[in-house]
Amino acid sequence: MDTDNRAEFRRFKKVEHEIRILQTAMENIRNNIDLDENNGELAKLQIENVKLKHRLDILKSAIEAERKQTSKGSSNYTGTISILDHLNELFTHAIATAFPQVSKDVPTVITVSSSAKFGDYQCNNAMQIVQKLKMLDVKLNPREVATKIMEALPKSHIISKSEVAGAGFVNVFLDKSFGASAIMAILKNGVQPPTCEKKRVIVDFSSPNIAKEMHVGHLRSTIIGDSISRFLEYLGHDVLRLNHVGDWGTQFGMLIAHLQERFPDYQNVSPPIGDLQAFYKESKARFDSDEPFKKRAYACVVKLQSGDNESLKAWKLICDVSRKEFQKVYDRLDVKLIERGESFYQEGMEEIVKELADSGFLEEDDGRKIMWGENKEGIPLTVIKSDGGFTYDTSDMAAIKQRLHEEKADWVIYVTDAGQATHFQTIFSCARRAKILNPSLHRVDHVGFGVVLGEDGKKFKTRSGDTVKLTELLDEGLKRSLDKLVEKERDKVLSQEEMKLAQESVANGCIKYADLSHNRNNEYIFSFDKMLEDKGNTAVYLLYAYTRIRSIARNCGGDFANNIEKVINSTELTLEHEKEWKLCKVLLRFTDVMKLITKNLCLHHLCEFVYEVSTTFTEFYDSCYCLEKNKQGEIVKINAGRVLLCEATSRILGKCFDILGLKPLQKI
Ligand code: ARG
Fold first, then answer.
1. Any residues with CB less than 8 A from the CB of 327 and at least 6 apart, and which?
2. Ligand 1 pocket list (CB less than 6 A)
3. How many angstroms is it from 205 CA to the middle of ligand 1?
4. Which of 565, 539, 540, 560 is nearest to 550 (CA)?
5. How much is the mean pLDDT over the chain?
6. What span, in angstroms and rounded, lies between the C-alpha atoms of 534 and 544?
């Protein structure tokens, strides 16, 4: 079905394109007629014009047929329609019909209306068209333009009515029976992702450095990268999650030299290095103060990079200690990723250096070998240091080549702090220059994020000023979430087992959600107090809301609890109450949210959506009875349609939770 849809869409676009060309041709003919009133060509042009008009009509009916195919009557209809795309097509068509002379310079603008009095969606193109027409000496005011657009708007099953409002907006009202059938489709087919071309995607995230601390920046990368991976997996892409750990480079010389001195028997007896960071500090201190040690350290690097067995063993040992520490964090956050550190690219680095040199891309600069990007702007990469060693840049050039050409990735995403933006832009630019990266085949994104600050607005540190250890941070989250649950007297209703699940879900969920719900490009203030609040856009609020919604069908008993499929197949949604309809319309935005995130990889849009679903659900639930009980507490009436609306809400929320890495609870 995917390929069918894609083919259909391409056909649709082609037809649309042809229409535009024809319209321009007709316009030209009309202009010619005006200019060459007495020319002998006139008759010929007029015949041509009639022919073109005929062809245009055929194409218009073809476009209408395509549109009907994607409509609710069609078997292709899965409920995952993008309303914004659909309206965009309709309005593009309307603008092209009403104002062919300017339409190609006017990108259609459709937005979700900010308030119910402006309809559900709006087309905001009139003002711009007025300006363009003015340049052609056509004088129309915005309301006149909007009226003409509205009149040219093709009929659609998703629109119940449209009207011109204010200073020239076209307001669109969605059709209720379309809404109801879209919700039914979600219930019948599950929450389907929008159709998209399936890609092989590599997400490079987390990526801490061996022997150095895994800090809150890496925590952000871990949380954001995991969620992006979950999102892309949901869309059906083939995702490879890579942990590009810093496990190679000159610092290993000093670590190995120090290991060999401190634990000479390290090959036979595993050295008790509990705290690798302290070990790193010790060796760094010696490296900086002790000349002979420094020399030995350099010798170790050379040996290691030439593949000396003993050095490799020492290196592996050090990496293992780090790896165990990192894994604790991944396990606790339920994050899966494959370690493929910088060392993996050792051979690739040698190859790429040779290739770049052979193609004449490397330039001498003060003993270093550098490479400029496409426009020789900004900062060049240092491909070889003056001592002959490779750098972070070299490994990323080797990595991008391996990923695009050996792994055959169509799309590579790098998740690091915003401070590395220039590094990645230069890598991308150099990769394009070296024809490794082909923008018409490959997509690359640097997903940057702002620094984590403490509640005092300063860099996130412990009270004593040290960097915060991630495992300790997660421990504190657990403790605080337990306090919160006890404060709310949940321990009185939940079993010990349930309490533990709730504690973990709340603790990890709140840390993840606080991170994801902020625009990742901004700095972010880490505050347990804020993230554990049970009001507002927090994980705690959402976990409670979700658990409550999930329990509604269960509380109805009977088929609602045991055979919801049967209820789905025998119930019709009417959405009579205004709040039912409002909730439905929010739910229908799901597909557009997915599409937006595909473009900008900003997950806060999903958090905003989830929050809006929850608050709109509360409004609905406060004004609409789903089930009525008598004085004895027995159920006397169930509104099946409303219970199904609850069910659809919980399924959509559940899907969003999956993407955000939140663990919903049966009980809380
Ligand atoms: N290890 C690096 C750091 O801690 C992040 C690596 C990101 N990935 C990459 N391909 N450069 O900053």
1. none
2. 204, 207-209, 244, 246, 396, 399, 414, 416
3. 8
4. 560
5. 90
6. 8
